[in-house]
Specification:
Radius of gyration: 19 Å
Structural class: alpha/beta
Largest sheet: 5 strands, mixed
Distance between the termini: 17 Å
Order of helices and strands: HEHEEEHEHEHEEHHHHHHH
Strand content: 5-15%
């Protein structure tokens, strides 16, 4: 898609896998980033000069638990596995818990598991874990645990983007035409994921992104790649910003974050240009 937009020299940067890629864009290693909404918000609140440009998709997260946990409110006193205490998993589960009235700091026992994350749940090291593709599909096929929250189907999470696209403010300001072309290529890719899942699943396997065609295909059916036109990107930013402000994760108000860290003009143009 990038080459179709005229980018003939595309360089793929592999950052440190132990560091969330919000740090890659903050350190100038990348110009664009696709990440969970709360991670973009935390970066903006911390003063990282990025601009969120568009939503990408909804529905890539499942909170999976053992038989002792029937719902999110049952996480009180339970163990939840996370990579680190500042990882996206920790942030997202904290927001989900706080939404149903739990205190994420005092009501949940957080278990750090940096290696074999899904296997830690299988081995019983913790009672719940926030899964993402292809781990959720793998656990489901192995009949391990059950889903207590699915961001594809369970409101209010299903009514908002889970992942959005950002770029450095410097790149957006210096190269607006290129910014639009990059964004267009990503959104065309989302359209392809929605329109031809079998083709995209095979590409994911052939290029080594996932080991299983079945997991890849199920992932593409589970994630809502067709929502970037329909969902309100600013509403998703505001929803998560309110949750994070209420829990003390960010100091800035939702209005301040949106005013400082978003730019919707390219999205508005592409919605008109890429009508189906």
């Amino acid at each position: 898609m990038l080459r179709a937009e005229g980018f003939t020299d595309v360089c793929y940067v592999q950052g440190d896998k132990k560091v969330d890629h919000s740090a890659w864009i903050a350190n100038g290693e990348t110009d664009f980033s696709v990440n969970y909404v709360p991670i973009h918000l935390a970066s903006i609140d911390a003063g990282v000069p990025i601009r969120v440009l568009s939503g990408l998709h909804s529905g890539c997260l499942e909170l999976i638990a053992n038989d002792s946990v029937k719902g999110v409110s049952d996480l009180r006193g339970k163990r939840v596995g996370v990579f680190t205490l500042d990882s996206p998993q920790h942030v997202l589960v904290s927001l989900m818990a706080a939404y149903v009235g739990l205190d994420p700091v005092n009501d949940i026992e957080w278990v750090i598991e940096e290696h074999n994350f899904a296997e830690g749940f299988v081995e019983g090291k913790y009672d719940a874990v926030l899964g993402q593709p292809p781990r959720t599909q793998e656990l489901r096929s192995r009949k391990v645990g059950h889903t207590i929250l699915n961001s594809t189907t369970d409101p209010p999470w299903s009514q908002h983007f889970c992942c959005m696209i950002s770029a450095t403010a410097d790149y957006v300001d210096r190269y607006p035409a290129a910014t639009k072309r990059v964004l267009r290529s990503i959104l065309k890719g989302a359209d392809l994921c929605a329109s031809d899942p079998p083709f995209v699943a095979q590409q994911m396997v052939d290029r080594g992104f996932v080991p299983s065609y079945d997991y890849a295909l199920q992932t593409l059916h589970d994630i809502r790649y067709n929502r970037w036109r329909d969902y309100d990107a600013e509403a998703s930013m505001r929803f998560y910003a309110l949750r994070m402000h209420e829990t003390g994760m960010v100091k800035s108000s939702p209005q301040e974050i949106i005013a400082t860290g978003t730019n919707w003009r390219f999205l508005d143009q592409l919605k008109r240009e890429l009508k189906t």
